[in-house]
UniProtKB/TrEMBL annotation:
Top-rank taxon, per record: Bacteria
Pfam family, one: Flavodoxin_5
Name of this chain's protein: Flavodoxin I
Record domain Flavodoxin-like: where: 3-138
A single GO molecular function term of this UniProt record: oxidoreductase activity, acting on NAD(P)H
Gene3D superfamilies in the cross-refs: 3.40.50.360
């Protein structure tokens, strides 16, 4: 099953989660949006976002605009946040507007920002939980 992991990460937190998921599923690499090549016939896209002033970054929104069901069939959304994970819901709705099947379950965890907020997050437990999520979604579609 052709699987990609893409993310938008300003501070590196969401990137860490994306890389853990890619490692678990043996996807060659996780890549920041927009990717070097647009996805084609991707069966499962894991799409990750941080949240910035209540929203996903505009680069993420722009990237989703380029998608369609020939590019991506199913998507699972994940993210890191300071305490409020509403960017995930925004990303889910934008994907659904494109006709893409969006998996209900999502993964989110806290991510550090400024100097001291959520220090050491995501931590090794978060990375483990992200891998469990990725495996579960992948296996549910493969079955
Ligand atoms: C400029 C800025 C704005 C942020 N706004 C929010 C916010 O509105 N809500 C929230 O929960 N977290 C907010 N955060 C925290 C980030 O979403 C959190 O640190 C996340 O892990 C960032 O992901 P990244 O490191 O992948 O960019 C903000 C962080 C920054 C730097």
């Amino acid at each position: 099953m052709k699987t990609w992991v893409l993310y938008y990460s300003r501070g590196g937190n969401t990137k860490k989660i994306a890389e853990a998921m890619a490692e678990e599923l043996e996807v060659p690499k996780a890549e920041q949006v927009p990717p070097a090549y647009p996805p084609e016939n991707v069966q499962l896209l894991f799409l990750g976002t941080g949240i910035y002033a209540g929203k996903p970054d505009s680069k993420m929104v722009e990237f989703i605009r380029t998608l369609n069901t020939d590019r991506v069939k199913n998507a699972a959304v994940f993210g890191t946040n300071g305490g409020q994970d509403t960017a995930i819901e925004t990303v889910k709705s934008l994907l659904r507007e494109k006709g893409i099947n969006v998996i209900d379950e999502t993964f989110s965890c806290k991510g550090k920002y400024f100097l001291f907020i959520n220090r050491n997050k995501p931590d090794s437990e978060d990375l483990k939980a992200a891998k469990v999520f990725a495996r579960k979604v992948y296996d549910s579609l493969k079955a």
